[in-house]
Amino acid sequence: MKTLISFFCLILLLACKKDIAQKTVENNDSTSYLDYSNKDDQFTGGIKMIPIKTSKGTFKVWTKRMGNNPTKRVLLLHGGPGGTHEEFLCFDGYLPNEHIEYIYYDQLDSYYSDKPNDSSLWTTEHFVEEVEQVRVALGLNKENFYLYGQSWGGILAMEYAFKYQDNLKGLIISNMMASAPAYGKYANEVLGPKMDPAIFKEIMHLEAKEDFDNPRYSELLMNHYYTEHILRMPLDQWPEAIHRLFNHMNPNIYIYMQGYSEFGITKNATLKNWDVTSVLKTIEVPTLVIGATHDTMDPEHMKWMSEEVKNGQFLLCPNGSHLAQYDDQKVFFKGLIDFINAVDTDSF
Protein backbone atom coordinates (compact mmCIF):
# COMPACT_ATOMS: atom_id res chain seq x y z
CA MET A 1 0.00 0.00 0.00
CA LYS A 2 2.86 2.35 0.93
CA THR A 3 4.49 1.58 -2.43
CA LEU A 4 1.26 2.42 -4.26
CA ILE A 5 0.90 5.74 -2.41
CA SER A 6 4.52 6.58 -3.21
CA PHE A 7 3.86 5.79 -6.86
CA PHE A 8 0.86 8.13 -7.03
CA CYS A 9 2.82 10.86 -5.22
CA LEU A 10 5.58 10.49 -7.79
CA ILE A 11 3.08 10.79 -10.67
CA LEU A 12 1.54 13.90 -9.06
CA LEU A 13 4.97 15.45 -8.55
CA LEU A 14 5.96 14.82 -12.16
CA ALA A 15 2.67 16.31 -13.38
CA CYS A 16 3.22 19.42 -11.27
CA LYS A 17 6.75 19.77 -12.58
CA LYS A 18 5.50 19.40 -16.15
CA ASP A 19 2.83 22.05 -15.56
CA ILE A 20 5.38 24.42 -14.05
CA ALA A 21 7.77 23.77 -16.94
CA GLN A 22 5.00 24.43 -19.46
CA LYS A 23 4.08 27.70 -17.74
CA THR A 24 7.77 28.64 -17.70
CA VAL A 25 8.04 28.00 -21.44
CA GLU A 26 4.90 30.06 -22.08
CA ASN A 27 6.21 32.89 -19.90
CA ASN A 28 9.58 32.76 -21.61
CA ASP A 29 7.88 32.82 -25.01
CA SER A 30 5.88 35.87 -23.94
CA THR A 31 8.98 37.56 -22.58
CA SER A 32 10.92 36.74 -25.73
CA TYR A 33 8.15 38.08 -27.97
CA LEU A 34 8.12 41.41 -26.16
CA ASP A 35 11.86 41.61 -25.49
CA TYR A 36 13.64 44.15 -27.71
CA SER A 37 16.86 44.13 -25.68
CA ASN A 38 20.11 43.64 -27.56
CA LYS A 39 18.30 44.34 -30.85
CA ASP A 40 19.56 47.01 -33.21
CA ASP A 41 16.16 48.74 -33.20
CA GLN A 42 15.61 48.80 -29.42
CA PHE A 43 16.59 52.47 -29.18
CA THR A 44 13.85 53.44 -31.68
CA GLY A 45 11.20 51.04 -30.39
CA GLY A 46 11.36 48.81 -33.46
CA ILE A 47 11.53 51.60 -36.06
CA LYS A 48 14.02 51.39 -38.92
CA MET A 49 14.48 53.84 -41.75
CA ILE A 50 15.65 51.55 -44.55
CA PRO A 51 17.74 52.97 -47.43
CA ILE A 52 16.25 52.17 -50.84
CA LYS A 53 18.46 52.45 -53.91
CA THR A 54 16.65 53.74 -57.00
CA SER A 55 17.56 55.09 -60.40
CA LYS A 56 17.02 58.57 -58.97
CA GLY A 57 19.15 58.17 -55.87
CA THR A 58 18.85 56.61 -52.44
CA PHE A 59 15.83 57.33 -50.24
CA LYS A 60 14.61 55.96 -46.93
CA VAL A 61 11.38 54.14 -46.11
CA TRP A 62 9.84 53.82 -42.65
CA THR A 63 9.29 50.44 -41.00
CA LYS A 64 8.34 49.43 -37.47
CA ARG A 65 8.71 45.92 -36.09
CA MET A 66 6.16 44.62 -33.59
CA GLY A 67 7.25 41.63 -31.51
CA ASN A 68 9.71 38.82 -32.16
CA ASN A 69 9.07 35.46 -33.77
CA PRO A 70 11.79 33.66 -35.76
CA THR A 71 9.31 31.69 -37.90
CA LYS A 72 6.29 34.01 -38.26
CA ARG A 73 7.15 37.48 -39.57
CA VAL A 74 4.52 39.38 -41.59
CA LEU A 75 5.42 42.41 -43.74
CA LEU A 76 2.34 44.60 -44.28
CA LEU A 77 1.82 46.33 -47.64
CA HIS A 78 -0.71 49.15 -47.37
CA GLY A 79 -3.20 50.31 -49.98
CA GLY A 80 -3.45 53.44 -52.05
CA PRO A 81 -1.09 53.84 -53.75
CA GLY A 82 -0.04 56.55 -51.34
CA GLY A 83 -1.77 55.19 -48.25
CA THR A 84 -0.05 54.42 -44.95
CA HIS A 85 0.47 51.63 -42.44
CA GLU A 86 -2.23 53.23 -40.29
CA GLU A 87 -4.91 51.06 -41.90
CA PHE A 88 -3.35 48.12 -40.02
CA LEU A 89 -3.18 49.57 -36.51
CA CYS A 90 -5.96 47.27 -35.30
CA PHE A 91 -3.56 44.34 -35.85
CA ASP A 92 -2.14 45.34 -32.44
CA GLY A 93 -5.33 43.99 -30.88
CA TYR A 94 -4.87 40.45 -32.22
CA LEU A 95 -1.44 39.40 -33.51
CA PRO A 96 0.62 39.99 -30.32
CA ASN A 97 -1.60 37.55 -28.43
CA GLU A 98 -0.67 34.93 -31.03
CA HIS A 99 3.07 35.80 -30.85
CA ILE A 100 3.05 36.69 -34.54
CA GLU A 101 5.69 39.25 -35.48
CA TYR A 102 4.53 41.89 -37.95
CA ILE A 103 6.16 44.86 -39.58
CA TYR A 104 4.49 48.14 -40.46
CA TYR A 105 5.91 49.75 -43.59
CA ASP A 106 5.20 52.97 -45.47
CA GLN A 107 6.16 52.72 -49.13
CA LEU A 108 8.22 55.42 -50.80
CA ASP A 109 6.23 58.67 -51.18
CA SER A 110 3.88 57.65 -48.40
CA TYR A 111 3.50 59.73 -45.25
CA TYR A 112 6.20 58.42 -42.91
CA SER A 113 8.78 57.70 -45.63
CA ASP A 114 10.85 59.93 -47.91
CA LYS A 115 8.90 61.72 -50.63
CA PRO A 116 11.00 62.32 -53.76
CA ASN A 117 7.71 63.01 -55.60
CA ASP A 118 9.17 61.64 -58.82
CA SER A 119 6.55 59.92 -60.97
CA SER A 120 9.21 57.89 -62.78
CA LEU A 121 9.44 55.83 -59.58
CA TRP A 122 5.70 55.21 -59.40
CA THR A 123 5.71 51.83 -61.13
CA THR A 124 4.97 48.30 -59.98
CA GLU A 125 8.52 47.39 -61.03
CA HIS A 126 9.99 49.99 -58.67
CA PHE A 127 7.80 48.97 -55.74
CA VAL A 128 8.60 45.26 -56.21
CA GLU A 129 12.31 46.04 -55.97
CA GLU A 130 11.62 48.31 -52.99
CA VAL A 131 9.91 45.44 -51.16
CA GLU A 132 12.84 43.19 -51.98
CA GLN A 133 15.29 45.70 -50.51
CA VAL A 134 13.14 45.97 -47.38
CA ARG A 135 13.08 42.17 -47.11
CA VAL A 136 16.85 41.92 -47.26
CA ALA A 137 17.35 44.74 -44.75
CA LEU A 138 14.98 43.09 -42.25
CA GLY A 139 16.40 39.59 -42.67
CA LEU A 140 13.16 38.06 -43.92
CA ASN A 141 13.50 34.73 -45.73
CA LYS A 142 11.79 31.53 -46.85
CA GLU A 143 11.78 30.25 -43.25
CA ASN A 144 9.77 33.14 -41.80
CA PHE A 145 8.53 35.63 -44.44
CA TYR A 146 4.79 36.14 -44.88
CA LEU A 147 3.87 38.95 -47.26
CA TYR A 148 0.47 40.58 -46.69
CA GLY A 149 -0.92 43.05 -49.24
CA GLN A 150 -4.25 44.86 -49.04
CA SER A 151 -5.93 46.68 -51.97
CA TRP A 152 -3.06 48.28 -53.95
CA GLY A 153 -0.82 46.36 -51.55
CA GLY A 154 -2.46 43.21 -52.94
CA ILE A 155 -1.34 44.18 -56.44
CA LEU A 156 2.16 44.71 -55.12
CA ALA A 157 2.14 41.42 -53.21
CA MET A 158 1.11 39.51 -56.34
CA GLU A 159 3.74 41.24 -58.46
CA TYR A 160 6.38 40.49 -55.83
CA ALA A 161 5.37 36.82 -55.76
CA PHE A 162 5.63 36.51 -59.54
CA LYS A 163 9.30 37.49 -59.33
CA TYR A 164 10.44 36.52 -55.84
CA GLN A 165 8.14 33.82 -54.48
CA ASP A 166 11.17 31.69 -53.59
CA ASN A 167 11.73 34.14 -50.72
CA LEU A 168 8.23 33.62 -49.30
CA LYS A 169 6.86 31.28 -46.68
CA GLY A 170 3.28 32.50 -47.20
CA LEU A 171 1.34 35.07 -49.22
CA ILE A 172 -1.83 36.94 -48.21
CA ILE A 173 -3.81 38.89 -50.85
CA SER A 174 -6.50 40.94 -49.14
CA ASN A 175 -9.37 42.84 -50.78
CA MET A 176 -7.85 42.98 -54.26
CA MET A 177 -8.86 41.44 -57.57
CA ALA A 178 -6.35 40.24 -60.15
CA SER A 179 -7.63 42.58 -62.87
CA ALA A 180 -8.14 46.35 -62.86
CA PRO A 181 -10.60 46.22 -65.79
CA ALA A 182 -12.66 43.57 -63.96
CA TYR A 183 -12.63 45.76 -60.83
CA GLY A 184 -13.98 48.70 -62.87
CA LYS A 185 -16.66 46.55 -64.45
CA TYR A 186 -17.80 45.29 -61.04
CA ALA A 187 -17.93 48.80 -59.60
CA ASN A 188 -19.91 50.24 -62.49
CA GLU A 189 -22.24 47.35 -63.27
CA VAL A 190 -22.86 45.87 -59.82
CA LEU A 191 -22.09 48.29 -56.99
CA GLY A 192 -23.09 51.56 -58.65
CA PRO A 193 -26.62 50.45 -59.58
CA LYS A 194 -27.18 49.33 -55.97
CA MET A 195 -26.96 52.94 -54.86
CA ASP A 196 -29.84 55.37 -54.75
CA PRO A 197 -30.35 56.07 -58.49
CA ALA A 198 -30.34 59.85 -58.01
CA ILE A 199 -27.08 59.71 -56.04
CA PHE A 200 -25.40 57.41 -58.54
CA LYS A 201 -26.54 59.59 -61.43
CA GLU A 202 -25.09 62.69 -59.77
CA ILE A 203 -21.78 60.94 -59.14
CA MET A 204 -21.57 59.78 -62.75
CA HIS A 205 -22.45 63.29 -63.94
CA LEU A 206 -19.59 64.79 -61.93
CA GLU A 207 -17.21 62.10 -63.19
CA ALA A 208 -18.23 62.74 -66.80
CA LYS A 209 -17.33 66.40 -66.31
CA GLU A 210 -14.13 65.33 -64.50
CA ASP A 211 -15.24 67.63 -61.71
CA PHE A 212 -13.37 65.59 -59.09
CA ASP A 213 -12.33 68.59 -57.01
CA ASN A 214 -15.95 69.55 -56.43
CA PRO A 215 -16.66 69.13 -52.67
CA ARG A 216 -19.98 67.63 -53.61
CA TYR A 217 -18.18 64.70 -55.26
CA SER A 218 -16.30 63.83 -52.07
CA GLU A 219 -19.43 64.32 -49.99
CA LEU A 220 -21.42 61.90 -52.12
CA LEU A 221 -18.69 59.26 -52.07
CA MET A 222 -17.99 59.49 -48.36
CA ASN A 223 -21.62 59.36 -47.26
CA HIS A 224 -23.13 57.00 -49.81
CA TYR A 225 -20.33 54.75 -51.09
CA TYR A 226 -17.50 54.62 -48.56
CA THR A 227 -19.83 53.85 -45.64
CA GLU A 228 -21.23 50.93 -47.64
CA HIS A 229 -18.14 49.50 -49.33
CA ILE A 230 -14.97 50.91 -47.70
CA LEU A 231 -15.86 50.74 -44.00
CA ARG A 232 -19.40 49.88 -43.00
CA MET A 233 -19.82 52.32 -40.13
CA PRO A 234 -21.13 55.89 -39.91
CA LEU A 235 -18.28 58.31 -40.58
CA ASP A 236 -18.34 59.61 -37.01
CA GLN A 237 -17.71 56.06 -35.78
CA TRP A 238 -14.74 55.35 -38.01
CA PRO A 239 -11.58 54.50 -36.03
CA GLU A 240 -9.21 57.38 -35.47
CA ALA A 241 -6.49 55.44 -37.33
CA ILE A 242 -8.59 55.43 -40.51
CA HIS A 243 -9.23 59.15 -40.29
CA ARG A 244 -5.46 59.58 -40.00
CA LEU A 245 -4.97 57.32 -43.00
CA PHE A 246 -7.21 59.54 -45.14
CA ASN A 247 -5.57 62.70 -43.82
CA HIS A 248 -2.11 61.35 -44.62
CA MET A 249 -2.91 59.96 -48.07
CA ASN A 250 -0.60 61.19 -50.84
CA PRO A 251 -3.03 62.29 -53.59
CA ASN A 252 -0.30 62.75 -56.21
CA ILE A 253 0.75 59.12 -56.42
CA TYR A 254 -2.81 57.91 -55.86
CA ILE A 255 -4.18 59.89 -58.81
CA TYR A 256 -1.21 59.03 -61.04
CA MET A 257 -1.61 55.26 -60.57
CA GLN A 258 -5.27 54.76 -59.55
CA GLY A 259 -7.00 57.91 -60.75
CA TYR A 260 -9.78 59.99 -59.21
CA SER A 261 -12.70 57.61 -59.44
CA GLU A 262 -13.79 54.87 -57.06
CA PHE A 263 -15.74 53.26 -59.92
CA GLY A 264 -12.70 51.78 -61.59
CA ILE A 265 -9.36 53.23 -62.61
CA THR A 266 -9.67 56.45 -64.60
CA LYS A 267 -8.44 56.78 -68.16
CA ASN A 268 -4.90 58.10 -67.69
CA ALA A 269 -3.96 56.21 -64.52
CA THR A 270 -1.06 53.82 -64.99
CA LEU A 271 -2.81 50.80 -63.43
CA LYS A 272 -5.79 51.07 -65.78
CA ASN A 273 -4.93 47.96 -67.82
CA TRP A 274 -3.25 45.93 -65.09
CA ASP A 275 -4.36 42.30 -65.31
CA VAL A 276 -2.56 39.19 -64.04
CA THR A 277 -5.39 36.68 -64.24
CA SER A 278 -3.52 34.53 -66.77
CA VAL A 279 -0.42 34.09 -64.60
CA LEU A 280 -1.93 33.53 -61.14
CA LYS A 281 -1.37 29.81 -61.65
CA THR A 282 2.39 30.40 -61.43
CA ILE A 283 2.09 31.27 -57.73
CA GLU A 284 2.93 28.08 -55.82
CA VAL A 285 3.59 29.41 -52.32
CA PRO A 286 0.76 28.88 -49.75
CA THR A 287 -1.68 31.72 -50.41
CA LEU A 288 -4.64 33.14 -48.52
CA VAL A 289 -7.05 35.35 -50.48
CA ILE A 290 -9.34 37.48 -48.31
CA GLY A 291 -12.58 38.92 -49.68
CA ALA A 292 -15.66 40.52 -48.19
CA THR A 293 -19.31 40.47 -49.18
CA HIS A 294 -19.66 44.27 -49.30
CA ASP A 295 -16.18 45.04 -50.65
CA THR A 296 -15.44 47.33 -53.59
CA MET A 297 -13.85 44.18 -55.04
CA ASP A 298 -15.87 41.23 -56.30
CA PRO A 299 -15.70 38.44 -53.67
CA GLU A 300 -16.51 35.78 -56.28
CA HIS A 301 -13.50 36.89 -58.33
CA MET A 302 -11.31 36.67 -55.23
CA LYS A 303 -12.61 33.18 -54.47
CA TRP A 304 -11.67 32.22 -58.03
CA MET A 305 -8.17 33.64 -57.43
CA SER A 306 -7.73 31.33 -54.44
CA GLU A 307 -8.57 28.38 -56.70
CA GLU A 308 -6.32 29.55 -59.52
CA VAL A 309 -3.09 29.69 -57.50
CA LYS A 310 -1.45 26.32 -56.84
CA ASN A 311 -1.91 26.22 -53.08
CA GLY A 312 -4.68 28.63 -52.14
CA GLN A 313 -7.39 29.20 -49.59
CA PHE A 314 -10.26 31.69 -49.55
CA LEU A 315 -11.53 33.60 -46.54
CA LEU A 316 -14.87 35.40 -46.90
CA CYS A 317 -15.75 38.10 -44.39
CA PRO A 318 -19.56 38.06 -44.72
CA ASN A 319 -20.16 41.33 -42.88
CA GLY A 320 -17.07 43.10 -44.15
CA SER A 321 -16.16 45.61 -46.82
CA HIS A 322 -12.83 46.91 -48.16
CA LEU A 323 -11.46 47.36 -44.63
CA ALA A 324 -12.74 44.05 -43.32
CA GLN A 325 -10.13 44.10 -40.56
CA TYR A 326 -12.46 46.62 -38.91
CA ASP A 327 -16.02 45.84 -39.94
CA ASP A 328 -15.76 42.03 -39.77
CA GLN A 329 -12.88 41.88 -37.35
CA LYS A 330 -13.43 38.54 -35.61
CA VAL A 331 -13.81 36.57 -38.85
CA PHE A 332 -10.94 38.42 -40.49
CA PHE A 333 -8.37 37.84 -37.75
CA LYS A 334 -9.35 34.25 -37.01
CA GLY A 335 -8.87 33.39 -40.68
CA LEU A 336 -5.59 35.28 -40.97
CA ILE A 337 -4.13 33.79 -37.77
CA ASP A 338 -5.27 30.27 -38.63
CA PHE A 339 -3.58 30.53 -42.04
CA ILE A 340 -0.28 31.78 -40.64
CA ASN A 341 -0.23 29.08 -37.96
CA ALA A 342 -1.18 26.34 -40.42
CA VAL A 343 1.65 27.26 -42.79
CA ASP A 344 4.06 27.55 -39.86
CA THR A 345 3.26 24.01 -38.68
CA ASP A 346 3.15 22.50 -42.19
CA SER A 347 -0.53 21.69 -41.73
CA PHE A 348 -1.89 24.00 -44.44
Automatic annotation (TrEMBL):
Gene3D superfamilies: alpha/beta hydrolase. PROSITE patterns: PROKAR_LIPOPROTEIN (PS51257). Residues 73-328 form the AB hydrolase-1 domain. GO terms for biological process: proteolysis. Belongs to the peptidase S33 family. PANTHER family: HYDROLASE ALPHA_BETA HYDROLASE FOLD FAMILY, MONOACYLGLYCEROL LIPASE. This is Proline iminopeptidase. It comes from Algibacter mikhailovii. The lineage of its organism: Bacteria, Pseudomonadati, Bacteroidota, Flavobacteriia, Flavobacteriales.
